[in-house]
Fold this protein.
Amino acid sequence: MNSNEIYMQQALKKAWEYQLRTYPNPAVGALVLYRNEIIALEAHQKAGTSHAEVLALLEAYKFLSKKELDFDRFDSKKAHEFLYTLPSNYFKECTIFVTLEPCSHVGRTPSCASLLAQLKPKKVVIATLDPIVGHDGGIKRLEEVGIEVEVGICEKEALELLEPFLIWQERAFVLFKIAQTSNGKIGGGYLSSKESLTHVHQLRAVCSEMLIGGNTVREDRPTLDCRFTGEPAPDITIYAKEDNFDRDIPLFSVSERYVSITNCLDFSQPSFILVEGGGGMFNALKENIDWLLQYQTPKLTSHPLGYEVEVTLQYLFQDKKGVDLMLWSKI
Amino acid sequence: MNSNEIYMQQALKKAWEYQLRTYPNPAVGALVLYRNEIIALEAHQKAGTSHAEVLALLEAYKFLSKKELDFDRFDSKKAHEFLYTLPSNYFKECTIFVTLEPCSHVGRTPSCASLLAQLKPKKVVIATLDPIVGHDGGIKRLEEVGIEVEVGICEKEALELLEPFLIWQERAFVLFKIAQTSNGKIGGGYLSSKESLTHVHQLRAVCSEMLIGGNTVREDRPTLDCRFTGEPAPDITIYAKEDNFDRDIPLFSVSERYVSITNCLDFSQPSFILVEGGGGMFNALKENIDWLLQYQTPKLTSHPLGYEVEVTLQYLFQDKKGVDLMLWSKI
């Protein structure tokens, strides 16, 4: 029994809500405990916006001060500036849980480690150190000013959360997404909850490109945009031997989208590639798929269409998405 | 954000580990918070043994006293006697979370509400009141002695946890269990992790009877015992039009087991019926199945055997079971 593990699991769960959506940043979650009360639970949501610790500190401030913020909390510069105006020791009765070592470098956002060193919470609990060379040193800065630091709580889970981030430092991270019933059927029209569909569109909005099979294009005649979120649609690569596609298929008419058609795929460039398809596409790309994301809808059906693939998975994380189950696996 | 919900969710999750295994008792979980530390997380495990609150208080005692117990903690009489010897206010800095109102009546075990009234923890947080007429009154006893009581935290989830218990007060609760791959295939031999198989045997050991289809008996020639747990095997009802079964099929030779063969099923008697089978059996019993338990193994396969059923589910709870996913649904 370890209370810190339970708090860290909440932070990890929160981070998984934004898994891949922070591309090219890592998914990170943070929780603030004040005495025995959880007063903030936040995650980094989008690259270029406030980090998880910063959002959590702002929520903690709101709880402790009973005041609202008069600026956009996702604006990291304003958030840091505001937090620096608080009296040192403002968070002296708070413990901060964060799934990744607070950043020590200044990138698109200021350094979180410097901010925490200034704010001096009672304790900072960290699941895992920053694995990127040159990005470490966050805990050193905290320890220098006498903040108690504990590292390694739920480290295995934190490293699983970070895996896409580590992969796309080197090459393409490839996610295969599939929507199915609880007995593995993929036919019969829209299967997923509105929450799952929205989530797919959120992933489409941040991916480097979408990759789909020629048969899916011909048979489903899809649009593959982000209409559930209103964001620009991703570029698309159609994996096909020849270009014999009817240009009336909606995906070709989405504005500001580049569509390429090729039978030669290259996964060597750092990127996030989202693949949507069925069993044929899965089998064609099996060696290149890193993770599988299944949206499992709460139904059993007798539809004939399933998918036949031979592969061993490792379940990483599961959570509800509306009424659906969202199941992340490593191939 | 509510810390109490997170603590109660831990207690609920613990209770789900023993869901149905407490038959004919309800599944109940309990957690003890001491200052901001979770010092005990327990569940009722088996009818006739110590209740969740009692096990949690014993673990809390061990934590606070740094002493071990010199008796069997599952022996509820000894557990109550021991806890009554502790000074009143021993748990005065503790908050107890329990998924069901502590019992006020004396059954096979003494009353937990009376025990808590004597021990006077700082606060008792309860997910839902005892729904059985005559079993309520637990909180009244706590409030009479000045213990702060909060009711209704995660009540919806607590009522889902209790549903089998409420059903088997009136009639048979029918659970359909199926083991499948992550793409819904059920063929290809043992699919499940050792932890899932053990769990199946734990359910077999407590059910009133197992119900299986004639085709499963003929084709799989199963044993259907509890060899993973060493407990006595359940009685079996084979659902079949005629008795033309080879008596060399292992299930007929399990000692102290009664096997009946019938095509007329009766679900009117309070009981817990465990059904194992495939799509045919599911379809035959569809109107009578209350819950579905899927053990989903982390594999995609191309085995031809799936199951075809048309039914809408409501996902209730999911957790890992070894490497498998254990998914509980309501039909």
